[in-house]
């Protein structure tokens, strides 16, 4: 990394900045997450803007309809970012199946529009993708970044098509080193005003509390998950931006197009519920472990094990350490015990 980059101010733009992940990506670029050797060595300060729609404040989070190309062009012109982190997506498989056209518009076509606009301006785009681009068949994981894909549901298909759109648009513009895919697993972290439904992990806490009312809850004890904390993902996105922007244009083309970050602790949803119950000091008698796997008649088929290898990030010298899942939740749920 060149010392000439020290003490520069850079600008980052984050789509979906009011969402579960987007909020922590913003915080990471603001310098509110754990500093790393890479970010400290760069010595950069970041100006950060987000985009949102229903919850935009017009100051830090700009109201932008990403489905309108003219609004995308306008915000890129107004903000002039060096990096755009694209977090906005329909990321819940069941909701995707309920609105396939709207999902394809947001997950694929909006991504293509952003990629084309960023490529034409020489802006680094980090596109947040998912482990669900893989089939997750037993025995295949952990998946390297270049492993064969094979999504089992429409959500995974649309995110994979979004990946292809990013790579295609930057390739067409001759800017291959600036279009980057970042795959992540199921996410957990601080939700907004107790909205646990923001996360497929956090929402399990609601299931545990519901079970205390005497209601039977069936919980998956088949699929393996490797949850990642949104604070860690935000930190990694910032460090990827530092790494790619501080690499010369000639050398940047040799950097990987696809990166992967993951938690390393394995849980089923039922095991997460057991952990939450243990922390809260409540029984799990009414939570029934379901080991049946996918219902073959269900519209959404979920993969068994999509554990992602983080080798590509490690090879770049990027810190892939993760927070201790149980320890984070013990801190977070302390208030519930008093």
TrEMBL record:
Listed GO MF terms: methionine adenosyltransferase regulator activity
Protein name: RmlD-like substrate binding domain-containing protein
Residue intervals of the RmlD-like substrate binding domain: 12-320
GO CC list: methionine adenosyltransferase complex
SUPFAM superfamilies named among the record's database cross-references: NAD(P)-binding Rossmann-fold domains
Signal peptide: none
GO biological process: S-adenosylmethionine biosynthetic process
Naturally occurring in which organism (per UniProt): Neurospora tetrasperma (strain FGSC 2508 / ATCC MYA-4615 / P0657)
InterPro entries, per the entry: dTDP_dehydrorham_reduct (IPR005913), NAD(P)-bd_dom_sf (IPR036291), RmlD-like-bd (IPR029903)
Entry superkingdom: Eukaryota
């Amino acid at each position: 990394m060149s010392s000439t980059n020290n003490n520069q101010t850079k600008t980052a733009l984050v789509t979906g900045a009011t969402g579960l992940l987007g909020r922590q990506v913003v915080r990471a670029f603001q310098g509110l997450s754990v500093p790393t050797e890479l970010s400290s060595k760069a010595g950069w300060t970041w100006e950060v803007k987000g985009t949102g729609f229903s919850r935009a404040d017009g100051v830090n989070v700009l109201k932008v309809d990403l489905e309108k190309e003219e609004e995308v062009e306008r915000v890129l012109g107004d903000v002039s970012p060096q990096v755009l982190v694209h977090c906005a997506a329909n990321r819940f498989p069941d909701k995707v199946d309920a609105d396939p056209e709207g999902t394809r518009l947001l997950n694929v076509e909006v991504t293509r529009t952003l990629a084309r606009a960023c490529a034409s301006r020489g802006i680094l785009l980090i596109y947040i993708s998912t482990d669900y681009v893989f089939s997750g068949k037993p025995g295949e994981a952990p998946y390297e970044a270049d492993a064969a894909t094979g999504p089992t549901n429409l959500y995974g298909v649309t995110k994979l098509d979004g990946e292809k759109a990013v790579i295609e648009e930057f390739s067409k513009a001759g800017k291959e080193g600036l279009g980057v895919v970042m795959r992540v697993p199921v996410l957990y972290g601080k939700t907004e005003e107790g909205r646990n439904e923001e996360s497929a992990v956090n929402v399990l806490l609601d299931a545990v509390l519901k079970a205390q009312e005497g209601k039977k809850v069936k919980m998956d004890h088949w699929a393996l998950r490797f949850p990642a904390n949104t604070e860690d993902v935000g930190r990694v996105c910032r460090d990827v931006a530092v790494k790619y922007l501080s690499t010369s244009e000639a050398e940047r083309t040799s950097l990987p197009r696809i990166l992967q970050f993951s938690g390393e602790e394995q849980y089923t949803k039922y095991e997460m519920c057991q952990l939450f119950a243990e922390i809260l000091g409540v029984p799990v008698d009414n939570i029934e472990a379901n080991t049946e796997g996918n219902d073959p008649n269900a519209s959404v088929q979920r993969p068994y094990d999509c554990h992602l290898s983080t080798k590509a990030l490690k090879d770049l010298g990027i810190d892939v350490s993760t927070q201790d899942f149980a320890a984070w939740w013990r801190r977070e749920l302390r208030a519930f015990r008093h």
